[in-house]
Amino acid sequence: MIIGGFAAQAQAQSNVTIYGLVDVGVVSERGGAVGTVTKVTSGVGSQSRLGFRGNEDLGNGLAAIFQLETGFKADDGALDTAGSIFNRQAFVGLKSKDAGTLTLGRQYTMLYNAMSQVADPFGAGYAGSIKNLFPAAGANTRTSNAVVYATPVMSGFSAEALYSLGEQGGSNTAGRQFGFGLNFSQDALNARLVYNNRNNDTAATTIPVAPAVSRDTGRNTLFAANYDFKVVKAFFAYGADKGVNSAALPSANAFGYTVAPKPSLDSNDLLVGAQIPVGSGIIMASYIRKDDKTVNNQDADQWALGYSHLLSKRTNLYVAYAKIKNKNGAGYTVGNNNEVGSGDKAFNAGIRHSF
């Protein structure tokens, strides 16, 4: 839905678009400490959401832009993050045809965009989600207080940079995050090389009194690419994760081990996958490996298979199944786009509609 500007003279220069997505499915999870879990859940393939985006033409190829987006649970109507309304995206900025785009607010990281938009045949959703083993927890997906700049596209190439302020008194570095991305998209090839750096320090406080805490940074480097051969679209991703919070566990101890799994401080991630068009649908498949290079050697492998049937351009039915094999006390779980999951196997079936 598009709503024109309220002032008569501005109607040709500005507009606001209301958009959204509703995704609900049946999920069955097995293999965790809680046993079999079967539920109706929201956001299996893509988180259910409601958003507003707009732009105002300022002339000479320059426009003011904004986006506000909230996530909700269509199974019970609640917000997906309690106490937060526009938790998914909330930013405003300027966009120039020649100079690029500058935005300020809560935004996606280059790391997550590369995973969800380029690397994963499941689009970071369903049981086969890349998020089950790749580092997508917390601020690796979205970060607040961010300034993001994106260059114009030139001969298929573009670049992005992000700087998120930690906003902790007495320190300009505690809690900050920055990232870079180099993108290429032309014809059948899409490729991205991204870097994400997260500072885990905590500044000293006076009320309550607490000393400063210094921790290692979390650093993620990822190369992702896909190529459309028409009969099949091939996907590949390789990542390196180093430092504290570089590969946080989606679930603390889902399998009830006596000794809880430890987040890796040094790991590599590999994904190979495919999308195969079949009639009015798409078959999705992937293999993901987490290689923990620490002495714990808590590796994991995931196999996933899914099918999305298009009823229209805006509505699809889906089924998906994935299984993880954890090694040496690793604790990775099969989740979906919105949930981390409770076990090492999961099946999804549902419907998704966008507007």
What characteristics describe this protein?
globular; disordered N terminus; mainly beta; 355 residues; 20 strands; 1 helix; 16-stranded antiparallel β-barrel
Question: How is this structure best described in words?
Answer:
This protein has one helix at 110-119; strands at 2-4, 14-30, 37-42, 49-59, 62-71, 89-96, 100-108, 142-150, 157-164, 177-186, 189-198, 205-206, 209-210, 218-228, 233-242, 266-278, 281-292, 300-310, 315-326, 345-354. The chain is an all-beta fold and 355 residues long. It has a single domain (2-354), classed as Porin. A 16-stranded antiparallel barrel has the order 2-4-5-6-7-8-9-10-11-14-15-16-17-18-19-20. A two-stranded antiparallel sheet has the order 12-13. A hairpin with a 2-residue loop joins strand 10 (177-186) and strand 11 (189-198). The longest helix has 10 residues, at 110-119. It is globular. InterPro entries: Gram-neg_bact_OMP, Gram_neg_porin_domain, Porin_dom_sf, Porin_Gram-ve, Porin_Neis. It is found in: Cell outer membrane. Homotrimer. It is a multi-pass membrane protein.
CATH fold descriptor: Porin
Shape field? globular
What is Rg?
Answer: 21 Å
Unreliable spans are 3-12
For the record, what is the CATH homologous superfamily label? Porin
Report the average pLDDT across residues.
95
CATH class: Mainly Beta
* Major beta sheet summary: 16 strands, antiparallel, barrel
Number of domains: 1
Taken in chain order, the helices and strands follow as: EEEEEEEHEEEEEEEEEEEEE
CATH architecture classification: Beta Barrel
Strand content: over 45%
Helix count from the secondary structure assignment? 1
- Spatial sequence of strands, sheet with the most strands: 2-4-5-6-7-8-9-10-11-14-15-16-17-18-19-20
Distance between the termini: 8 Å
Number of strands: 20
What share of residues is helical?
under 10%
Helix/strand structural class: mainly beta
Main location: membrane
Pfam families: Porin_4
Subunit structure: Homotrimer.
Domain Porin: 5-328
